[in-house]
Structure formats: structure tokens, C-alpha cells
């Protein structure tokens, strides 16, 4: 009898716990997609044959003798990346010209034919070791287009590309991201390749199942739709993935994602610190400033995307000091700016309603992306009010949704009141993993957030108020 009563009690408690949980709304991110989104900021390294021929796209006719860096030091790359706050580096192991930065068995166009280290070098191996030493994640870019390989444009090439994938996925340790390029032009025989995407995706899933794969349609993360360093005001992680493919000519129709998309494929913003992707001496004084990089950060990470910042390594095989200085300045700006000014002891929070004791308003300031506040189901005008006993000089409001339960909020309104009674309103669309709303710098004393439209019971996991600093007093607005 005691056993029956105890079992009934346990079952009852389990039901209560289950009933307290808010149901997720599909599509949902996988564990590796959530882990990828948490990285926020990492680096691209465009370094290859094009570095030495001073072009952006090579033709595949270049001699391997051109590739001969005088002072290649992947530890320098990793050291600078780590100091700048990057979480990983993605290397162009093979660009469109077909030259491979490692001694592949499946092409004759590689470092094995170059004078660098008498043909015994392997840039991918050196970077993998440097990333391990500095605690960075390693990513691989392998362009499917190959303007050198004689098999390009035939069925055999797809198997060759897959074998090159296998080499890169099995010889260099863990890979966090595999980056495909959507470019698809003619090979040396004048033919274009029909890529076997299911085969390519299967190779990564087999050998590096924890790696996310990037292309126009994923399958895990997608191109944002431009290379200028910003995501769009409306940004849905769900997208109708099966309707598009890498190099899709009408991608603009999908750049915002889709509210009722079938798959979770969050966007990645890829942008170079210089005008070009590869190193060109004439661009040494055209490196983006720390202020410009901060503006890019707000418009990428602050709009439900991750930021992939490209650093063009020079002909020595080193990051140029101008690029390094800008990266360090950007790191310093983030350190000084991304401090939450909403002190729990001096910020009074009021919410319109609360779902239950699991989804309390105190979760809004706990920095945990998994906990959240939720209004009850009968609340037709969910809202959050924050009153600051000590007004703070600020210019940015940050909001987050707990994306493990799906993306929910379609639109919301923020009302801000300054110390002197000045008021202004911001109307915005999606939130997703992270949303930063910028406004003219004021001493803020009161903030009201109203959730206007949502796909399912709304959830907010975190709030923060920042004063993002500009060394040149540049506007944050993109």
C-alpha cells in the first residue's frame, strides 16, 4: 500500500512538473546549432594562391611555385584571434582556383608542389595545432568549384571532392564548421559541375557529426544574403530549406528567413575586415576601424546571427599589423561596452502576468539563456516594465529568446523614458537568439517592452542595457 501511494505521489509530481513546462514550437535547433549560436564571433582566414597573385578569384592556371610565404606563422594568427575574442578560425583549404593548402592525394595542385618547405608543408595541420594550443575551434572552407581539376564537370569529380572532404575531416581533429561556397562556374574543360549535395553533407555528418554545415540553405546554418556585414531587421531562423540550394539565383526572397519555415537554419554574417577577401597591399590603409566593426557586431550578432570576420593574411603568411590593431581595438570596445547596466538591486521589474513559478521575471536578469519569463496564456498584451532607481547613460537595449524552444516573437514595441522626461518609441520585428536595439544616448530611467505579435506563448530569456562606446563618436545605426 505504501508503495502504491509513493508511486502515485511521484507520478503526480512528475505531471505537475511537465504541466509547468511551455511547449516548444517547431522547427527547433539541434544541440550543435545551439552551441554554434553561442559562439557569436569567430574568424575567416582567406590565405591561398590568390594571396600571391594579388587577385580575388584565381583561374586554376597558376603555378604552385607562386605559393611561398616567407614567414608563415599560424600561431600568430591564433594568438591574435584569441586576444581579439574570436572563438575559432575557418581556413580556405581550397578556393575556386583549386590549389589545396594541404598535401591532398586527390589533386596535383597543392602545397606539395610548391617551394614552401620544399613541398613538405601543410597549412591546415599547422593551423589545427595552433588552434588547439590557443583553445580555438577549427573550421574548414572547401570550395566545390575547381578551375584546375581535370575531372571537374564529370560525375567522378563529386567523389573526388568527397574524398578531399574525408581527408580534411579525419586528419586534423575536431571541426566546428564546414563552409561551402555557392560559386559554380566552368572548370578547365569548359563544363559546370552538378554538385552531389547529399553526398557532401553525408561526409560531414559521418566524420564530424558535431560540425555545422554552411551554405545558402544550410543544412545547418545559412548565408545572410550580403557580404557587407549586417543582418536584416526581420530575421527568422526557420526557413523553407528544401526550396533553395547553394547559388540559388532568387535568394533575396529568403534572406529574412520565414516565419513558418520548415527547418531551423540560422544566418551567419560573413564580412571582410578589408574591402577584399584576400590580401592586397593597396588596401593596407583601408582596414575597417574598431567603431565600424562594433557597428557590424550590433547589426549581426545583435540581429539573430553569428559574425564571421575575415582576416586576409599577407604574403609573409602573417596577419598585417593594421588588421591586428583594429581587431584589438574592437575587442577593447566590446569589453567596455557590453556591460549590463540593469543592476538587479536597483532595477524594479514589473510584468503584466506570469505563467507560473518556473517562468518568473527574475529570470530576465540571470544571464541564463535557458531560463525565461513568460506571461500567462490569457494575457493579450504581455509587457515588461523596468524602472531604474539610478538612471544610467545608455544607447542599446538587448533582448533574447530561449531558442531551444523555438523562435516565437513576430513584433514588439519598446518605450524609453529619459531622466528629464523625454520619451521615444521603437517598433521592431523579430528577436531570436539576440536582438540589440540602438537609440540616441540618454540617461534612461524607465523602459517598457510590449510584445505585440507572436507565433506561440512568448518567452524572453534575458534583457540587458548597454552603453556602446564609439572611439570616433560614430553612429551605431546601420
UniProtKB/TrEMBL annotation:
<dbReference type="Pfam" id="PF01120">
    <property type="entry name" value="Alpha_L_fucos"/>
</dbReference>
<dbReference type="InterPro" id="IPR057739">
    <property type="entry name" value="Glyco_hydro_29_N"/>
</dbReference>
<dbReference type="InterPro" id="IPR000933">
    <property type="entry name" value="Glyco_hydro_29"/>
</dbReference>
<dbReference type="InterPro" id="IPR000421">
    <property type="entry name" value="FA58C"/>
</dbReference>
<comment type="similarity">
    <text>Belongs to the glycosyl hydrolase 29 family.</text>
</comment>
<dbReference type="InterPro" id="IPR016286">
    <property type="entry name" value="FUC_metazoa-typ"/>
</dbReference>
<dbReference type="Pfam" id="PF00754">
    <property type="entry name" value="F5_F8_type_C"/>
</dbReference>
<keyword id="KW-0378">Hydrolase</keyword>
<keyword id="KW-0732">Signal</keyword>
<feature type="signal peptide">
    <location>
        <begin position="1"/>
        <end position="19"/>
    </location>
</feature>
<protein>
    <recommendedName>
        <fullName>alpha-L-fucosidase</fullName>
        <ecNumber>3.2.1.51</ecNumber>
    </recommendedName>
</protein>
<feature type="domain" description="Glycoside hydrolase family 29 N-terminal">
    <location>
        <begin position="61"/>
        <end position="327"/>
    </location>
</feature>
<dbReference type="InterPro" id="IPR017853">
    <property type="entry name" value="GH"/>
</dbReference>
<feature type="domain" description="F5/8 type C">
    <location>
        <begin position="349"/>
        <end position="453"/>
    </location>
</feature>
<keyword id="KW-0326">Glycosidase</keyword>
<comment type="function">
    <text>Alpha-L-fucosidase is responsible for hydrolyzing the alpha-1,6-linked fucose joined to the reducing-end N-acetylglucosamine of the carbohydrate moieties of glycoproteins.</text>
</comment>
<dbReference type="InterPro" id="IPR008979">
    <property type="entry name" value="Galactose-bd-like_sf"/>
</dbReference>
Amino acid at each position: 500500500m505504501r508503495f502504491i501511494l509513493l508511486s502515485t505521489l511521484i507520478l503526480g509530481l512528475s505531471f505537475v512538473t511537465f504541466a509547468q513546462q511551455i511547449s516548444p514550437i517547431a522547427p527547433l535547433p539541434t544541440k550543435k546549432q545551439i552551441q554554434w549560436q553561442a559562439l557569436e564571433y569567430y574568424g575567416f582566414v582567406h590565405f591561398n594562391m590568390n594571396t600571391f597573385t594579388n587577385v580575388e578569384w584565381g583561374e586554376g592556371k597558376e603555378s604552385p611555385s607562386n605559393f611561398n610565404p616567407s614567414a608563415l606563422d599560424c600561431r600568430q594568427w591564433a594568438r591574435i584571434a584569441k586576444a581579439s575574442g574570436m572563438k575559432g578560425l575557418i581556413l580556405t583549404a581550397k578556393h575556386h582556383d583549386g590549389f589545396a593548402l594541404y598535401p591532398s592525394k586527390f589533386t596535383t595542385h597543392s602545397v606539395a608542389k610548391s617551394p614552401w618547405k620544399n613541398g613538405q608543408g601543410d597549412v591546415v595541420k599547422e593551423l589545427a595545432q595552433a588552434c588547439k594550443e590557443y583553445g580555438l575551434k577549427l573550421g574548414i572552407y572547401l570550395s566545390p568549384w575547381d578551375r584546375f581539376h581535370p575531372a571537374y564537370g564529370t560525375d567522378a569529380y563529386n567523389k573526388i571532392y568527397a574524398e578531399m572532404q574525408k581527408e580534411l575531416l579525419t586528419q586534423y581533429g575536431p571541426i566546428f564548421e564546414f563552409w561551402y561556397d555557392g560559386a559554380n562556374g566552368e572548370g578547365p574543360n569548359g563544363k559546370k559541375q552538378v554538385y552531389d549535395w547529399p553526398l557532401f553533407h553525408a561526409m560531414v555528418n559521418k566524420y564530424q557529426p558535431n560540425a555545422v554545415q554552411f551554405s545558402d540553405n544550410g543544412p545547418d546554418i545559412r548565408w545572410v544574403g550580403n557580404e557587407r556585414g549586417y543582418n536584416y531587421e526581420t530575421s527568422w531562423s526557420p526557413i523553407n530549406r528544401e526550396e533553395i540550394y547553394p547559388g540559388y539565383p532568387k535568394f533575396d526572397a529568403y534572406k529574412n528567413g520565414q516565419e513558418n519555415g520548415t527547418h531551423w537554419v540560422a544566418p551567419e554574417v560573413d564580412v571582410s575586415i578589408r574591402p577584399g577577401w584576400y590580401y592586397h597591399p593597396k588596401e593596407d590603409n583601408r582596414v575597417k576601424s574598431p567603431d565600424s566593426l562594433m557597428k557590424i557586431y550590433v547589426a549581426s550578432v545583435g540581429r539573430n546571427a553569428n559574425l564571421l570576420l575575415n582576416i586576409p593574411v599577407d604574403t609573409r603568411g602573417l596577419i598585417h599589423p593594421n588588421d591586428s590593431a583594429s581587431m584589438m581595438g574592437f575587442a577593447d570596445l566590446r569589453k567596455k561596452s557590453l556591460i549590463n547596466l540593469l543592476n538587479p538591486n536597483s532595477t524594479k521589474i514589473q510584468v503584466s502576468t506570469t505563467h507560473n513559478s518556473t517562468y518568473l521575471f527574475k529570470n530576465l536578469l540571470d544571464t541564463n539563456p535557458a531560463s525565461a519569463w513568460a506571461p500567462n496564456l490569457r494575457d493579450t498584451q504581455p509587457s515588461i516594465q523596468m524602472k531604474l532607481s539610478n538612471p544610467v547613460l545608455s544607447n542599446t537595449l538587448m533582448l533574447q529568446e530561449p531558442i531551444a524552444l523555438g523562435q516565437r516573437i513576430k513584433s514588439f514595441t519598446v518605450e524609453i523614458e529619459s531622466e528629464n522626461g523625454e520619451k521615444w518609441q521603437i517598433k521592431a520585428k523579430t528577436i531570436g537568439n539576440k536582438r540589440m536595439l540602438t537609440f540616441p544616448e540618454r540617461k534612461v530611467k524607465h523602459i517598457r517592452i510590449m510584445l505585440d505579435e507572436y507565433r506561440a506563448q512568448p518567452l524572453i530569456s534575458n534583457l540587458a542595457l548597454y552603453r556602446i562606446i564609439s572611439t570616433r563618436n560614430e553612429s551605431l545605426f546601420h
